[in-house]
Structures
1.
Amino acid sequence: MDRLTVLSPAKLNLVLDILRKRPDGYHELRTIFERISLADKITLSRNKTNKISIRCAHPHVPKGPGNLAYKAAMMLRNDFSISEGLDINIIKNIPVAAGLAGGSSNAAAVLSGLNCLWQLGLGNSQLVNYASRLGSDVAFFLYDTSFALGTGRGERIKPLGLKVKLWHVLVTPKVKMLTADVFARLKLNLTNKKDNVNILLPFLRKGDLERLAGALSNDLEPAILSLRPDFIYLKKKLLDAGATGVCFSGSGPSVFACVGSHKHALSLRAKFDRRYTQSFVVSTL
Ligand code: C5P
């Protein structure tokens, strides 16, 4: 096999609880990940050079070592003393630096794709090990599950075997937000900290959309809004337009709404001005 094409989906965080700052500078968190239908397409092609190259038409995607997909390939290539080169072609549909973990998902797709293409024989726990060295959100994408509980930095994954399918409108302002900048603005208030994961989980298990929508939460929201106070209007606009629940995903600026049907999602999306935002109708994958 000389070439392999894989889908690389985005995620949403239905809940993001930040528990404490750790001695290593990261934050201990608890989250529920949802894999969604918005996806990049990655083609891995062996080549005769001894280089790894990234091709992507999106201007904000790094083409060298700043790209997690490049780092993932480099790690495997070094560890397994692979001498041949590799082209990584990324068709970018997921907004960049937007709280959707597009770069992390690309890295996971490269890890599992190269495991096949280079016939490395790595098991899932070994791939997860590589994933956690690359970033906190990478490991989730190595599990074949629509929903998962994430703990630790977000890299410890427990798949939730749920068959629920949710519909969302996802709105992403055309502004990049760096995760580290958002975390740096976080003011931890740990008094009476609610266990938002366990509040939401029963509603997700039952597919109780109304209660689920009311239980969405993200502890990074005050930090996101301290960087961009105007984004509160985005949430308000979705709610005013009839969304049942609205929440930021990850470190933002993407905001998503839960809606009851594909049809409702389409009519809601039509209300967003394309000059300032990118908007998508997505479902659980
Ligand atoms: O792990 P990742 O490289 O995606 O994290 C980017 C940045 O986000 C980290 O450097 C850190 O500042 C912050 N972060 C954190 N706690 C986490 C995950 C990320 O503080 N659990």
2.
Amino acid sequence: MQIVFIGPPGAGKGTQSVRLAEYLGVPHLSTGEMLRGACRQKSEIGIKATEAMESGQLVSDDLVEEIVFSRLEKPDCESGCILDGFPRTVPQAEALDHWLAKRGQLLSGALELRVSKELLVERLSSRGREDDDQGTVLERLRQYDKLTHPLLDYYGNRQVLQVIEGSGTQDEVFSRVQGVVAEMNSSSSEQAEK
Ligand code: AP5
Ligand code: MG
């Protein structure tokens, strides 16, 4: 089962995708965490990614794809994984579809966490990650609107998009996530029986 989480900064992708991965017993892959790790280690990818991340811009598709696909090749991802923050552009989504198709797999679902801008800003201002200062958050939101928002149509057209209301407590949001995943599972087993 391959599931991707889509949502603006602060929507709760990390919070909910970690819980879902644990619940389903599959790995959680966050490109933000992988890239922050690469920056700390000052690896070649990290050095190239640092400037974009510090300014709230997206890292280039080729660097992110390199880091994600080499992780997806690992045996623990064979039965699926939860992707948090990838894909984030239409070319990344196409690359993921291509990668899955080569292995005879399909994306199980794209879960959009929908949260108002006011709530996003409130959540991030109380967290304090390095890229959570006001100017960088606004740039991350702009990048989301410009480059990631088109993915909603991309996945909507492929009928794999599920919209989840992201306000409320973490437990309330997780119950919605579980409900959507249960429906996805039952409709995919109905398809298999046909
Ligand atoms: P990334 O690390 O993915 O950051 P982001 O998308 O900006 O999102 P956040 O991690 O800030 O928010 P989240 O949705 O995970 O919410 P969270 O659960 O933490 O990416 C960072 C950077 O890496 C990008 O800017 C880019 O440069 C680069 N990058 C990453 N992937 C890339 C890609 N594919 N292509 C190119 N570049 C890429 O929650 C936020 C806060 O709210 C937390 O404090 C949490 O505790 C709290 N919270 C969560 N849910 C609730 C709730 N229900 N109620 C109250 N508080 C809550
Ligand atoms: Mg996150």
